[in-house]
Description:
The protein is mostly helical. It has helices at 3-14, 53-74, 83-101, 105-113, 116-124, 127-131, 133-144, and strands at 17-22, 28-31, 34-35. A three-stranded antiparallel beta sheet has the order 1-2-3. A hairpin with a 5-residue loop joins strand 1 (17-22) and strand 2. Helix 3 packs across helix 7 (133-144). The protein is elongated, with a radius of gyration of 16 Å. The two termini are 16 Å apart.
Amino acid sequence: xxxxxxxxxxxxxxxxxxxxxxxxxxxxxxxxxxxxxxxxxxxxxxxxxxxxxxxxxxxxxxxxxxxxxxxxxxxxxxxxxxxxxxxxxxxxxxxxxxxxxxxxxxxxxxxxxxxxxxxxxxxxxxxxxxxxxxxxxxxxxxxxxxxx
Length: 148
């Protein structure tokens, strides 16, 4: 999987901030949409504290590895999926997390069936689509146009 391409897409969708900030839910975040956890030094920092580019990269790389592990839990055939499909699903997993992504049962089944148009249709019928419409539409458009 092209992790550099995924990183570029996630920077567009998540943004990148070299400081701690509160996300739209009021949760402490830094870097490329990294939710600060209690066991990390960033968790106790004051909002607005600068974070090095190296640390942001380290956190992102950890997050991406977790995302791929979670994708492989959902899709037994993960390694056999088309590259663009993996990029889209990993982007969604990064945004939603495994518990919420797992609830997209019809989307997941459509991906497993290789039915890209139905997968995109299911993406568009979700609450998530209305929460992050620009991102979700771009991903759904890419999904329905996969050629394998």
